[in-house]
Write a structure and sequence with these properties.
The protein is an alpha/beta fold. About 25% of the residues lie in helices and about 30% in strands.
């Protein structure tokens, strides 16, 4: 069982239904050596990724969780997503762009610690000593629907 910070019971009231489901799955399905932070503040601009996951060998992963339904997405580009919510069209920053920004800020913070950067003469000298990545969890969209919609493009 992964270790979630803060504990799930203490943050359920501020989570969306997709975040609750994802947090429960993290706790139930990931191994004991995962640490996961929910809604943690990152960097001087105080960005807040939905989840940051850390594994000692696999590295760091920033994830945004969205409860969107495919029929509510009106347009999508690398920067902006237009959604229909309660009959109104709203624009949001693309969640993949947000998660990338979160991981870049986190990596920049971690690279300030000399113990966390590569110190050898390889091509990775001065870079973070662990792998890292970012992504989006679309709770209400299946892989089949995602692929068929062309959203990956």
């Amino acid at each position: 069982m992964a270790y979630l910070i803060p504990q799930l019971n203490s943050c359920l009231s501020r989570m969306t239904s997709g975040e609750k489901r994802f947090a429960r799955r993290i706790e139930a399905l990931l191994e004991n050596d995962y640490t996961c932070w929910y809604d943690v503040t990152v960097g001087v601009k105080r960005r807040r990724p939905d989840f940051l996951l850390l594994h000692p060998l696999r590295g760091l992963l920033a994830l945004e969780v969205k409860d969107w339904r495919l029929d509510r997405i009106r347009s999508l580009d690398p920067r902006i997503v237009e959604l229909e919510v309660n009959g109104k069209l709203i624009k949001e920053l693309n969640p993949l762009l947000k998660s990338r920004d979160f991981i870049q800020v986190t990596v920049a913070q971690l690279q300030k610690d000399p113990l966390l950067v590569q110190d050898d003469a390889s091509q990775y000298a001065g870079k973070l000593c662990m792998p890292y990545g970012h992504g989006v969890v679309l709770r209400n969209i299946s892989r089949r629907d995602f692929d068929a919609s062309g959203m990956a493009d």
